[in-house]
């Protein structure tokens, strides 16, 4: 009996040790403490698609509804995607192929669809009409692009009146036919009445997109020159410190922020670390031994060491000039959209924005990550906020 008891204890200790090891594997070098988290819906998964803009903007509007005291709703991202694909196709053909066509978009595409077509819940339009459980758009993206290219390049010397019908039917074959009417929570809606009734209080004209670049005058609007701005929409231009102030003020006042940014940087950790930072080597934080080792490293080795992101460290000071230079050289590109839903601090007391991503629960933070102020200042291409989230003095400068 004693021997069996000893074995039981040993087995228990063994499994306890395994549990501790598993816990350690999930741990990250950065330790975050939540400061503020605003109401938001669950993390979704865009999976193998280029439709981050629809997931980020849908999440943003879902939070706006919660902020207004409305019931939680899961909006259909593919309703936005199908409508935008149709209208992109029309513009592409009318421009004889001299404009961008693809699955990408900007945050204001949500406003465009709301204003012109309304909104629908996910349950009424999941957009998975092609036998997959998750969104996979490689085939439909290629098919739709080839269609519009073929229309433009046809040898008939004129465009037929039925090409758009063929395009829409192809899009609908994958995403499903866009519903003219649907039932949600025992009530019938059209997409426009769902916006005006169920989502009452959401007005597309109440939202603005803001950026910060020096190649256009500050405190005016300009068309942001990125390929996915197929609507040629104008954004408000502010100085870098204003951009940071708007984000801080929005979160402080209870407004979330839709965020478009470059995530191709080495400081954007897609691993379990769940951070987006702009690290810079600081000898002031090193011991004499560490300085000696650092100075012996090659430039390649220094960069590799710097981006291990083993612990919070010093980050670059971001200036307007540094930010502009990265955009002008096309180092900074508009390649992802996300949703800022709160703030947190690391173990050193440094503040970060808590970001809701659309890649499912891909990391140890269940699909969220933490972006430092330098990263946001350096790599933001645009933000979208409610007008009331902008400080009053800036609203006056911008004219709204």
SSE layout and pairings?
Layout: H1 2-26, E1 33-37, H2 52-67, H3 77-94, H4 108-117, H5 138-152, H6 163-175, E2 182-184, E3 187-189, H7 191-198, E4 207-211, E5 221-223, E6 234-237, H8 240-252, E7 257-261, E8 275-276, H9 288-296, H10 299-306, H11 320-328, E9 336-345, E10 351-356, E11 368-372, H12 373-379, E12 380-386, H13 392-398
Helix pairs in contact: 3-5, 3-6, 5-6
Major sheet description: 10 strands, mixed
Sequence stretches where pLDDT stays below 50 over 5 or more residues:
22-26
Radius of gyration, Cα only, in angstroms?
24 Å
The share of residues in extended strands comes to 5-15%
Instruction: Kindly give the count of domains.
Output: 1
Under the CATH scheme, the architecture is: Alpha-Beta Complex
The ordered H/E elements are: HEHHHHHEEHEEEHEEHHHEEEHEH
CATH fold descriptor: Cathepsin B, Chain A
CATH C-level class is: Alpha Beta
Termini separation (Å)? 81 Å
What's the pLDDT, averaged over the residues?
A: 91
By secondary-structure content and strand pairing, the structural class works out as alpha+beta
CATH level-four homologous superfamily name:
Cysteine proteinases
Number of contiguous helices? 13
| Helix share bin | 25-40%
């Amino acid at each position: 009996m004693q021997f069996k008891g000893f074995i039981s204890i040993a087995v228990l200790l063994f499994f306890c040790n395994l549990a501790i090891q598993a816990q350690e594997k999930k741990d990250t070098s950065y330790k975050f403490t939540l400061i503020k988290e605003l109401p938001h819906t669950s993390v979704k998964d865009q999976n193998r698609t280029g439709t981050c803009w629809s997931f980020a903007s849908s999440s943003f509007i879902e939070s706006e509804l919660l902020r207004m005291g409305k019931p939680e709703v899961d909006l259909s991202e593919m309703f936005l995607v199908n409508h935008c694909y149709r209208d992109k196709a029309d513009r592409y053909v009318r421009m004889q192929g001299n404009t961008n066509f693809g699955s990408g978009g900007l945050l204001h595409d949500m406003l465009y669809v709301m204003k012109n077509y309304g909104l629908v819940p996910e349950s009424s339009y999941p957009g998975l009409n092609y036998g997959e459980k998750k969104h996979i758009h490689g085939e439909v993206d290629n098919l739709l692009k080839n269609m519009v290219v073929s229309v433009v390049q046809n040898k008939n010397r004129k465009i037929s009146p039925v090409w758009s019908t063929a395009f829409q039917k192809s899009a609908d074959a994958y995403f499903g036919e866009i519903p003219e009417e649907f039932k949600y929570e025992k009530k019938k809606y059209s997409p426009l009445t769902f916006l005006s009734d169920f989502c009452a209080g959401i007005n597309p004209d109440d939202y603005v997109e803001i950026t910060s670049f020096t190649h256009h005058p500050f405190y005016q609007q300009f068309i942001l020159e990125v390929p996915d701005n197929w609507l040629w929409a104008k954004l408000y231009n502010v100085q870098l410190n204003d951009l940071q102030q708007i984000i801080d003020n929005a979160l402080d006042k209870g407004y979330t922020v839709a965020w478009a940014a470059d995530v191709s940087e080495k400081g954007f950790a897609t691993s379990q670390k769940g951070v987006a930072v702009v690290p810079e080597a600081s000898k002031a934080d090193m011991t004499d031994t560490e300085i000696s080792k650092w100075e012996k490293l090659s430039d390649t080795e220094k960069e590799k060491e710097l981006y291990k992101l083993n612990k919070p460290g010093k980050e670059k000071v971001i200036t307007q000039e540094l930010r502009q230079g990265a955009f002008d050289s096309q180092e900074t590109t508009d390649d992802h959209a996300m949703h800022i839903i709160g703030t947190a601090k690391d173990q050193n007391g440094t503040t970060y924005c808590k970001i809701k991503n659309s890649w499912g629960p891909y990391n140890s933070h269940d699909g969220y990550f933490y972006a430092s102020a330098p990263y946001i200042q350096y790599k933001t291409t645009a933000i979208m906020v409610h007008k009331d989230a902008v400080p009053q003095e800036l609203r006056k400068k911008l004219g709204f």
